[in-house]
């Protein structure tokens, strides 16, 4: 039976002989639009086989220090970058692609395969279970606060809270903000993969903090402070977002400086000249 993929977000839904019933889990009306993340309208479906048959290629970048990124071109769904983090004990696949084919699986195999899968938040679940099964059924780590967004239960899924270490030296850290379970991944030598728990900016060496990306709704001062304080426990010098933004040095200083300005603006300190 085919695995159905939502064309709006690229998240896989349970296998079925007929097209997936109902709407994508990420447009569910069970909770408010603020909890859903306000993605654009969904409603069409494709399959892994159909995606593999379409003309496309995988953009691949070696970022050094055992960090590699993958992105499908032309863009599909959200069009995010996925990452492979190499370690001596196996590799982490972060923010799984929403597609699989022989070429991209072969590329990941040449990098050492996959020993664990994790996502920054539900918009990035992608085809995480299919990727797990392609590499022997490795664990798929999901923050417990995001469990409600899983399209269905599966024995491969391991729920976690606060922080966990799916592989020695690779840490998943819960920060919240964009969605309740939003998290980052930190490598042993200080590369921070943030999904869009932290976002890039148009300014050089700057980051932003948003609750809602389609509508550019910023996070509150209190939540930004919580995120930065949480990350202050860890050392990191590089930062990569799912959208292609990169801070290649002094990333912790960039996050702190950006956060302080964000907090001052949303707190009203600069209301007088507006």
Relevant terms:
Metallo-beta-lactamase, Chain A, 6-stranded mixed beta sheet, about 270 residues, alpha+beta, globular, 7-stranded mixed beta sheet
Strand content: 25-35%
Supply the number of structural domains: 1
Report the total helices.
6
Strand order of the largest sheet: 4-5-6-7-8-9-10
The total of beta strands comes to: 20
* CATH class descriptor: Alpha Beta
**Oligomeric composition of the shown chains:** single chain
Describe this structure in words.
This protein has 274 residues and is an alpha+beta fold. It has a single domain (4-266), classed as Metallo-beta-lactamase, Chain A, CATH 3.60.15. Helices cover 19% and strands 27% of the residues. The chain has 6 helices and 20 strands. The chain has helices at residues 33-36, 48-53, 102-110, 128-134, 221-231, 251-266, and strands spanning 4-6, 12-13, 45-47, 57-64, 67-73, 82-85, 92-94, 116-118, 140-143, 157-160, 163-167, 170-174, 183-186, 191-195, 199-200, 207-208, 210-212, 217-218, 238-241, 246-247. It has a 7-stranded mixed sheet, with helices on one face. A 6-stranded mixed sheet has the order 11-12-13-14-19-20, with helices on one face. It has a 3-stranded antiparallel sheet with strand order 2-1-3. The longest helix is centred in the C-terminal third of the chain and has 16 residues, at 251-266. It is globular and about 60 Å long. The chain starts with a strand and ends in an 8-residue tail after the last helix. The model has no long low-confidence stretch (mean pLDDT 92).
């Amino acid at each position: 039976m085919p695995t159905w993929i939502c064309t709006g977000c690229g998240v896989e839904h349970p296998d079925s002989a007929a097209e997936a019933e109902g709407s994508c889990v990420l447009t569910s009306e069970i909770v408010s639009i603020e909890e859903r993340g306000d993605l654009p309208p969904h409603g069409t479906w494709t399959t892994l086989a159909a995606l593999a048959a379409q003309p496309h290629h995988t953009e691949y970048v070696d970022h050094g220090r055992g960090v590699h990124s993958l992105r499908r071109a032309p863009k599909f769904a959200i069009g995010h970058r996925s990452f492979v983090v190499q370690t001596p004990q196996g590799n982490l696949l972060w923010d799984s692609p929403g597609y699989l084919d022989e070429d991209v699986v072969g590329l990941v195999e040449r990098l050492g395969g996959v020993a664990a899968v994790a996502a920054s938040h539900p918009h990035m679940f992608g085809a995480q279970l299919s990727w797990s099964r392609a590499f022997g059924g490795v664990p798929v780590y999901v923050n417990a606060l995001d469990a409600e967004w899983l399209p269905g239960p599966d024995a491969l899924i391991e729920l976690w809270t606060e922080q966990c270490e799916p592989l020695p030296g690779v840490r998943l850290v819960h920060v919240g903000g964009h969605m309740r379970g939003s998290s980052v991944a930190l490598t042993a030598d200080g590369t921070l993969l943030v999904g869009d728990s932290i976002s890039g900016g148009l300014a050089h060496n700057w980051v932003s903090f948003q609750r809602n990306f389609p509508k550019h709704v910023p996070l509150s001062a209190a939540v930004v402070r919580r995120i930065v304080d949480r990350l202050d426990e860890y050392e990191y010098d590089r930062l990569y977002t799912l959208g292609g933004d990169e801070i290649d040095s002094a990333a912790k200083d960039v996050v702190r400086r950006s956060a302080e300005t964000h907090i001052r603006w949303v707190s009203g300190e600069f209301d007088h000249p507006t």
